[in-house]
Amino acid sequence: MERRDFLKLMSVGGIAFASGCARAVVPASRRDFFFLQLSDTHVGYEGAANPDAAGTLPRAVEIIRASKARPDFVVFTGDLTQSTEDDVDRQARMKRFKEIVSGIDAPLHFIPGEHDASSDAGAAFRESFGETHWTFEHEGIHFIGLDNVSQPAATLGDAQIAWLDARVSALPKNAPLVVFAHRPLFDLHPQWDWWTKDGARALEILARHEPVTVFYGHIHQEHHHTTGRIAHHASRSLVFPLPAPGSVPKKAPLPWDEAGADHGLGFREVAGSMRERTIVVPK
Fold first, then answer.
1. Which of 12, 62, 122, 282 is the most buried (most CB within 10 A)?
2. Per residue in 42-81, pLDDT tens?
3. CA-to-CA distance for 165 and 6, rounded, in angstroms?
4. Are strands 15-19 and 230-234 parallel, antiparallel or unpaired?
């Protein structure tokens, strides 16, 4: 793609630009492609941490639409909406989110965040977006979406772990896997609820394969980690940044930086080699 269009896409906050994952083990005849990850859009949020919260996601959609570079698909990794205890308001926020992202000319995939699903065990999410966990194959790569937010205590649960085990066991051991989850599957910082209580069970299943890459959200910042041979990459948020794990006594949104080029709503590229780089494109 043209560099100008690449930079347009990269200027969108909260996007992971993922290209050619695990190409070394995919048949050479496979067509190169890329997909976009957007996370933590929190439609319905109002607060000082982002005085332009209502405009951030529409701007991201506009940039994607304006670019000549077309992703093969887009994955939203949870917290599509801001939490509310009002069922009608929750459905209205999800409807608004769907209206905004419908402008993206690419297949869309969604998994819930706790803001979307914890209050009603994912009922409104399923009504708006379908199942909370899923799998599909694209260009020889197997993609899996997990739900680690709608079960009690934000776990995957026995049924979903059994489902994951069955899906993964049916694949060749060298089949490339790309997994999406809202929360980290490893224990990043349990004191801030940045973990999945039974995530180790899922990682044990995934570890039987190589290569495996996990993309997640929830922590509102870029973060990279490995567990064994599994690479984990967190996307920044499209609403406000959060502090580094354990860096402050209490987790809270970072103050809005009016002079900042990206306001902490950053972006990154994850290339086929899984080397990452962050690019800042001033407004």
1. 12
2. 999 999 999 989 998 998 898 888 888 888 999 999 999 9
3. 37
4. unpaired
Segment 170-214, tens digit of pLDDT: 999 888 899 999 999 999 999 999 999 999 999 999 999 888 999
Cα-Cα-Cα-Cα dihedral sign, residues 184, 189, 190, 191? negative
Enumerate the domain spans of the chain. Answer: 3-277
Element (H or E) spanning 270, and its range? strand 267-270
Asked whether 73 and 108 are in contact (CB, 8 A), the reply is yes
Give the H/E segment covering residue 108. Answer: strand 108-111
Kindly tell me the sign of the dihedral angle through the C-alpha atoms of 62, 64, 69, 73.
negative
pLDDT in tens, 115-144: 999 999 999 999 999 999 999 999 889 999
CB within 8 A of 168, min separation 6: which ones? 144, 177, 205, 206, 208, 209
Which CATH class, in words, describes the domain spanning 3-277?
alpha beta
Q: Which of 151, 252, 168 is nearest to 203 (CA)?
A: 168
The two structure tokens encoding residue 76: 């939203």
Structure tokens at 112: 């819930």
Instruction: State how far the alpha carbon of 249 is from the alpha carbons of 50, 178, 199, 246, 252, in Å.
Output: 22, 34, 25, 7, 10
Whether this prediction's pTM lies above 0.85 is answered by yes
Pairing outcome for strands 73-77 and 34-38: parallel
Helices vs. strands in the chain: H and E counts, helices first:
7, 12
**Pairing mode, if any, of strands 15-19 and 34-38?**
antiparallel
